[in-house]
Amino acid sequence: MPSSDRESISTDFASLALYNAGLRATQNGDVKYRKSRAELCGCDSEQDFAAKLYGIRLAFRRLMDDPQTMQRLVQYGRIIMADLLRHDKRDPSEFYTAYDRMIAFITNENNMDTIRSELKSRKVESTNLWDTLFDLIILDAFEDLQRPPSAIAALVKNSFISKSMKESTLNNLIWSIIKVKRQRLQVKDGFISHFYDISQILTSSLAMGLFGGSDREFTELCIYLKEQIFGFILEIFNPNKVHFTKVEDLAVDIKKLLFDRMELLQIKLLNELLPA
């Protein structure tokens, strides 16, 4: 049980029923995950991470069972990413099409078996928002951006190439990389394929922004986006920020933290002047 850091000292873990249920499940070998995020999530150990993950999965599942919550989340995602593209002087129409196709696909019950099969092939242990949206899609995407192919890194950081030339070349490189990945897909028009459609649109802007290849204002927006995402992740694994007592309590806390962060992002994007 955690005992080494300041958070642990101020938290009575014995009173956290959901956390302790997670500990028992972990000790029984029932909490599996494809990739450890213990350090990134601010956890004391693998056991601490797994125990918290147990409750977080249940809480996210409860949120997914609420149509209004999911509709609000989908709408926020659509607005925020489209506004980010606008700040990069890009028309979001193509993004809207890809995003709406993805949402239509994942909300169609007839596709659920296909989605589960695709996720299972990627060692995703649970089809909930943590494992699919945050762990598989968002965190893996940021990891890819942190260690891009050498050709992309060299291109973005080359100060002798114009921004428009960088963007054009970067789009071609990303298209080539995703094309290779598509060829490996067993399901050609499934969940991962729809995700690649969105990635192909967003990746160049995010790469340019996070690597400093864009103007200062857009770079700051991309960094702010990343900070909000990682701040949220740290909060939901922090027993001083959320209640690991009951699934209901944790779900309420996660929902509030999630939408608070998304509102901050939306306000930031609205308050920043769009480029002419």
Description:
With 276 residues, the protein is mainly α. The chain contains twelve helices and no strands. It has helices at 6-9, 17-27, 46-64, 67-87, 93-106, 112-121, 129-146, 150-157, 163-183, 191-210, 216-236, 247-271. Helix 2 crosses helix 3 and helix 4 (67-87) runs parallel beside helix 12. The protein is globular, with a radius of gyration of 20 Å. It starts with 5 loop residues before the first helix and ends in a 5-residue tail after the last helix. Residues 1-9 have low confidence and may be disordered.
Order of helices and strands: HHHHHHHHHHHH
Q: Outline, from the CA principal axes?
A: globular
Strand content: under 5%
Kindly state the percentage of residues in helix.
Answer: 55-70%
Number of beta strands:
0
Low-pLDDT runs of 5+ residues are: 1-9
Specify the biggest β-sheet. none
The chain-level structural class is: mainly alpha
On the 0 to 100 scale, the average pLDDT is 90
Helical run tally: 12
GO cellular component, one term: mitochondrial outer membrane
Subcellular location: Mitochondrion outer membrane
Pfam families: Miga (PF10265)
Family: Belongs to the mitoguardin family.
